Amino acid sequence: MTHAELWERHKAVMPAWLALYYEEPIEIVQGSGRRVTDGEGNTYLDFFAGILTNAIGYDIAEISDAVREQLGSGIAHTSTVYLIRKQIELAEQIAELSGIPDAKVFFANSGTEANETALLLATQARRSNQVLAMRNSYHGRAFGTVAITGNRGWSASSLSPVNVQYVQGAYRYRSPFRELPDAEYIKVCVEDLRDVIETTTAGDVACLIAEPIQGVGGFSSPPDGLYAAFKEVLDEYGILFISDEVQTGWGRTGEHFWGIQAHDVVPDAMTFAKGLGNGFAIGGVVARGELMDSIKANSLSTFGGNPISTTAAKATIDYLLDKDLQANAAKRGAQLVDGLRGISDEFPELGDVRGKGLMLAAEIVKPDDNTPDPAATTKLQQETKDRGLLIGKGGLYGNVLRMAPPMTLTEQEAAEALEIIRDSFGTLH
């Protein structure tokens, strides 16, 4: 069956709002290392890794073998009404890695579920439905997480279970304060935070939730230190701070294991998902024990933290720690940033290069006035695919190329990707 035939079947039974990449969508049927093969036999270097999810790569023996061993036991699922050894072992490891005092962990199936849980914890603990979120943010597709998503393209409903106010600062490239030095930029954003609290809320806000690097928003981030300055204000009002680490966790940013560590902040809670399972569905929250235990009603997760996903996640964490993939992310990220900046010197359509480690973005603009150019972005994404490289797309205006390859990326593969990207930019002229 061709991709075109499969696409026709897809359109007949799947929602029209289910986003697909490329003029002719592809099916990925095989993978090894950092490369994948589609249903028509074409092979690609994967620079988006299932939206940052295949963090280690494809067909990794240490992870696959661990999962096969668990399947061999005959137990794929028991639910959280029973003890799950791998769940406990994984929770112990994440609690220690988090740096959060007296941490406890709850497992779910995705980043959306993780953020919904964090909202439940914060609003219950503070007895308030008021939430602060960042402009240009994305936190999931459920009722509560859509409500706190500050990006119109991904916010399907104005209805909300929480009262949300949005704060300035995370998307610096198009901020009215972009020309300010870091310290001054942080200062005016902190003033905005305080003004939002004082003028648009009743004061007793439950939490601020923020991505250290905004994912769907185009891998944008503020200067290091902004969230430390924010937390000083939050602490004055007793407002909790939640770091959404769904895309930034597990050493991907290179500098730190958690993205928020760049700001020298220990949050009250962190949410996680994506790369933890290297493709297996898992998410969760790690939070101060007192906050985690603020829920007094019974609860559970039927599939969250099941034996298969926690086995895969434990093997994934052990692998990335044993191989020091955080250090590799820093090295290969520096190589890619240097290369992308060289391309930006050659092609003015590349308006901004940003990100950290193996979480990088190229914002595409019209050179004459620096306005977003989503059409050129779509063309570049297609051109790179045609040359054997898969990259993502995002940003508030759909004009950002997002690059997040597996953290096992090699120097040679990074160089190969840069050559493809440069050649693709050449088609714009």
TrEMBL record:
<dbReference type="InterPro" id="IPR005814">
    <property type="entry name" value="Aminotrans_3"/>
</dbReference>
<dbReference type="InterPro" id="IPR015422">
    <property type="entry name" value="PyrdxlP-dep_Trfase_small"/>
</dbReference>
<dbReference type="InterPro" id="IPR015424">
    <property type="entry name" value="PyrdxlP-dep_Trfase"/>
</dbReference>
<comment type="similarity">
    <text>Belongs to the class-III pyridoxal-phosphate-dependent aminotransferase family.</text>
</comment>
<dbReference type="InterPro" id="IPR015421">
    <property type="entry name" value="PyrdxlP-dep_Trfase_major"/>
</dbReference>
<keyword id="KW-0032">Aminotransferase</keyword>
<keyword id="KW-0808">Transferase</keyword>
<dbReference type="GO" id="GO:0008483">
    <property type="term" value="F:transaminase activity"/>
</dbReference>
<keyword id="KW-0663">Pyridoxal phosphate</keyword>
<dbReference type="Pfam" id="PF00202">
    <property type="entry name" value="Aminotran_3"/>
</dbReference>
<comment type="subunit">
    <text>Homotetramer.</text>
</comment>
<protein>
    <recommendedName>
        <fullName>alanine--glyoxylate transaminase</fullName>
        <ecNumber>2.6.1.44</ecNumber>
    </recommendedName>
</protein>
